[in-house]
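FAQ: What does a multi-protein file look like?

Like this. Sequence, then tokens, then the next protein.
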Amino acid sequence: MTMTRQDTDALRAFESLADPSASVRLRAALAVGTAPHPRFVEGLVERSAVEPEFFVRDMLTWALTRHPVAATLPPLVREVGSKLPQARSQALHTLSKIGDRRAWPAVTGAALSDADDEVARSAWRAAVVLVPEGEEQALARALAPQLGRGDRETQL
């Protein structure tokens, strides 16, 4: 199979996600999202788990939302069970942006009450977006014990 120029550019951009420069990584995530291909999904999820810069993580999330849901859902759902808090948080955040309710089972009670405030907040947001019709009251009961948790930012 011959690679097109767009394929070659996207592959080069994907490889730049590991660049030491945040601005290069940001442009790389933009390029990969602009030319989505399922072969990039696992790498985008993996990079989201360790990316130190907020704006790059946000662009990685955007890039994942541009890929087919069938390709993104399984690795993101799997990532919710990661040992890394940032990986869990980013996966939940991205699932909330994708908004596909098939991801609802990943928003577990453990995620909603995660010891890491960022993970818990991401789970709360994902839960509100992904909750299936008729499950709203059960979700409210699961979230009620979290009221008053953490600092002011977490409480908001």
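And here is the next protein:
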Amino acid sequence: MSTTINDLYASRGSRAAAIIARQDPVVYDGGSYADALTSEQLASYENNGFLLLENIFSAQEIQGLLDEIKRMSDDPEIRAMEEAVTEPASDEVRSIFRVHQLSAMVDRLSRDPRLIHVARQILGSEVYIHQSRANMKPGFKGKEFYWHSDFETWHVEDGMPRMRALSCSVLLTDNNACNGPLMLVPGSQKQFISCQGETPDEHYKQSLKKQELGVPDPLSLQLLVEQGGIEQMTASAGSVVFFDCNTMHGSNGNISPWPRANVFMVYNSMENALEDPKHELKPRPEHIAARKRFEQLEPLDTPAVEPAH
């Protein structure tokens, strides 16, 4: 039975909102486990909680991935799955989960040396995919993702014990200031925001469309932003954003004509496997949080798709 006794990052239930100092490293073992980032890049990630690497993938690679995600979005069988989440007020596909298992191309992407070695270096261990998804934010009607720390949800609803995971977002379209780019609060990974509210079972069915639980209270968010500011991840297609599981982030709605799309993978340490969810919640489905079916990722010897020449 799950308990909050001795929980370093207790949240929700009867608790009031609180700011709790992080008890885990941001970069594990000094970044010595692998050799992908420079010391300057590691220091930036440790200080800010994220790192933008521009133009990692070629136009040819990105077009192939974008075509694959569009194919999946249009596939009636995939649209009928629980893995496909639509926008709150339309039948436009908002997210497709478990894409690394639904697509051989995305499976290769998850093991691409340009990505996985960064995750291994930061987390100081071998890794597996806790969650993968394609995120789409169509032009004119793509809705926002409200401010949140992923770890708060993964800790409470999935039972992820410690902050030893990171997210990797591969940009499939240009992300500009107008089409709802990812926004991050620098330095916010150093503080855990304990949130308010009782969490119902199967909360994910509502939260994946519009999250209202597990979000920071306005005062805590204001304090984080006053301390660190807000940075938009505006970059061209083919760039990659890595960010810590506890970095506060969100994005605005897209009322521009330019769609936004990315492939999003969560790398978790093999030493940080899920425990029971908090507050005696039922575990979320496997396609949202890998609990029963996961294995150590073996890096590819070569890039997933050969770069264009």
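Q: Is there any per-entry metadata?
A: Some entries carry free-text notes. For the entry above: The chain has nine helices and 13 strands.
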